[in-house]
Automatic annotation (TrEMBL):
Gene Ontology molecular-function annotations: hexosyltransferase activity
Glycosyltransferase 2-like domain ranges (all copies): 7-143
CDD domains: Glyco_tranf_GTA_type (cd00761)
Domain of life of the organism encoding this protein: Bacteria
Name of the protein this chain belongs to: Glycosyltransferase 2-like domain-containing protein
Organism expressing this protein natively: Azonexus hydrophilus
Keywords: Membrane, Transmembrane, Transmembrane helix
TM regions (residue ranges): 250-272, 278-297
């Protein structure tokens, strides 16, 4: 059976990562058993200077698959994601999201489609495996703080992220769910997007074999970056809840945040154990981000200044 699939990649001043991703996408296995995939790659450059155009043009000259290049000149991940969804060709049955610092396993797309066939679901998510550079802090590496979700293969789940996911195009267009552009600097618009799709009764399954790898730069294997990221992840939940506007939800989130802070503190005596110490850091800083975020504090990890600093590293 033929499946027409678009892979959407949002990029901002990350030429080496984008080139690696585009080349890996072009090497994907697209035929297996009763599956045949027609692939289109949609690159959304979130830089008004079109800094990624050179890489896209270079890859297009040797590409087996179609590349669509569009520019979201207004800064903001959800703005770029919405343009990416809008740029998916009408004939595509499904579209995927993958980040520009990631690259897929050769059977990534085939395994996503296999899971769709097996369960008849609208959406499939898969694991992201971190790849650390030489010289990384081994305590941080061993802590598991960079590890993504892990579920049993085929399990029904009720969340997803834009770093490894495939979604039925018709479902998204019929429900008119969009990435929340109020979250353009905070991150987490994908968390809210899939939460809203779940409320629209989308069916999501997990594919343990649809693997994506993430290259972790040495600048991120640091205490400061880890603390800030865990705080931001917790803060994202509060920002989303304030946008939704459920007062009870905010109260529940505050209580949950405080409990996580206390749990983190209780685990601090085990800080020298990477696994337990990592859990202490995750609980404490995510809880802090939740609790403070309830009162309107927003951590803007993706501001122009923060992004430029991240790309320079």
């Amino acid at each position: 059976m033929l499946y027409k699939v678009a892979v959407v990649c949002i990029t901002y001043k990350r030429p080496h990562g984008l080139k690696k991703l585009l080349l890996k996408l072009d090497d994907l296995t697209l035929v297996a058993a009763d599956i045949s995939i027609e692939l289109t790659v949609v690159v959304v450059d979130n830089d008004s200077e079109m800094s990624s155009s050179t890489i896209v043009n270079e890859c297009s000259s040797v590409y087996k698959n179609e590349i669509i290049y569009v520019v979201a000149s207004e800064q903001g991940i959800p703005i770029a994601r919405n343009l990416g969804v809008d740029s998916v060709p009408a004939q595509c049955d499904y579209f995927c999201f993958i980040d520009d610092d990631e690259y897929p396993d050769e059977l990534w797309l085939v395994n996503l489609i296999k899971t769709i066939n097996k369960f008849g679901c609208d959406c499939v998510a898969g694991p992201v495996v971190p790849i650390f550079p030489v010289g990384s802090n081994q305590w941080i590496v061993s802590s598991g703080m960079f590890n993504g979700w892990i579920y049993e293969d085929g399990k029904e789940i009720f969340e997803a992220a834009s770093n490894n996911v495939i979604v039925k195009t018709e479902f998204v267009r019929n429900t008119k769910v969009r990435f929340e552009e109020k979250m353009r600097m905070t991150g987490g618009s994908d968390y809210l997007f899939f939460r809203q799709l779940v409320e629209k009764n989308i069916k999501i399954r997990w594919s343990a074999n649809a693997i994506v790898f993430e290259d972790i730069p040495i600048s991120r294997v640091s205490w400061r970056w880890v603390f800030n990221r865990q705080f931001r992840l917790g803060n994202t939940f509060a920002v989303s809840q304030r946008i939704i506007g459920h007062r009870f939800g905010l109260f529940f989130l505050f209580v949950k945040g405080m409990l996580r802070i206390l749990l983190g503190i209780s685990l601090m005596p085990f800080i020298f154990n990477p696994k337990l110490g990592g859990r202490a850091i995750v609980h404490f800083f995510r809880g802090l981000g939740m609790a403070i975020g309830v009162f309107g504090v927003k951590y803007e990890e993706y501001s122009n200044k923060a992004l430029l600093k991240d790309r320079q590293n």
